[in-house]
TrEMBL record:
This is SURF1-like protein. It is found in: Cell membrane. It comes from Curtobacterium pusillum. It is a multi-pass membrane protein. Pfam families: SURF1. It comes from the Bacteria. GO terms for cellular component: plasma membrane. The keyword Cell membrane applies. Keywords: Cell membrane, Membrane, Transmembrane, Transmembrane helix.
Length: 259
């Protein structure tokens, strides 16, 4: 069989099969690297505090990679625009959301100030900070929530939804940060409210099995390219052997007839 394989035609086809196998192997390696890369946890950059404007700009969505980012922002809370939410995790029956007008940009930002088990105390906490003074808030930044997430019951809301606040806030100039900040204990203490239980976000990742499957598939294709060459060579050799046997039988038959 190897005498057939050494013919120029089959050597050329072998080189072509090896090139195809190399291409398929490269694609398999690329897919494998993709599956491993997707399985790595995201870099933990959220614990390096940034100014709000270094993290996001007004009217731009907060991406999931920024969820939980530590930020610092200065501004003035607007009196009469305190919102009380209920049914939220992090502590308390009621959580207070203040309307902060950010210094420099003038855009509006919802800030979850803290919690209380009394609605009146939650409202008073927001009013306590809305005294016209410029304050600096430190906390974690999160993407905006949708009004569709609201658990509405007897006039109570649960979602930090800027899309709804624009209809309830009195002082609003149409520019808003599309996210919100959960303030830390310093701001909560200044408002005489409980501190929202908040912690560094966990980055859940999952190994990309689909890319792994593609990687295995490309390796199979690489092996099949070489196997196909081998199969063609063997078929040619078997066909030629069969022709030789038939030719030999024909010669033997002719000699027997002459005798």
């Amino acid at each position: 069989m190897w005498a057939v394989a050494r013919r120029p035609r089959w050597i050329a086809l072998l080189l072509l099969a090896l090139v195809l196998a190399a291409v398929f192997a490269f694609l398999g390696k690329w897919q494998l690297e993709r599956s491993i890369e997707n399985g790595k946890p995201l870099p933990s950059t959220t614990e390096t505090r940034k100014s709000l404007d270094d993290a996001i700009s007004p009217m731009r969505p907060v991406t999931e990679t920024l969820a939980g980012q530590k930020v610092r922002v200065s501004g003035t809370f607007v009196g009469g625009d305190t919102t009380v939410l209920t049914g939220r995790s992090g502590g308390g029956t009621y959580q207070t959301v203040g309307h902060l007008v950010v210094s420099g940009t003038g855009a509006s930002l919802p800030v979850v100030l803290g919690w209380s088990d009394e609605r009146s105390a939650a409202v008073a906490g927001g009013d306590r900070l809305a005294d016209g003074a410029t304050v600096t808030v430190e906390g974690r930044l999160y993407p905006e929530e949708s009004p569709d997430q609201d658990t509405y019951d007897k006039g109570e809301y649960s979602a930090v939804a800027p899309a709804r606040f624009v209809n309830t806030w009195k002082a609003f100039d149409d520019r808003m940060y599309l996210g919100y900040v959960v303030a830390d204990g310093t701001t909560a203490k200044a408002a005489d409210l409980g501190t929202i239980a908040d912690r560094a976000p966990t980055r859940e990742v999952q190994f990309d099995w689909l890319n792994l499957f593609y990687a295995v598939e490309w390796v199979v294709f690489a092996g099949f390219a070489v196997f196909l060459w081998y199969r063609f060579v063997k078929d040619t050799w078997e066909r030629e052997e069969e022709d030789r046997r038939e030719a030999a039988l024909s010669v033997d038959g002719a000699l027997a007839d002459r005798r």
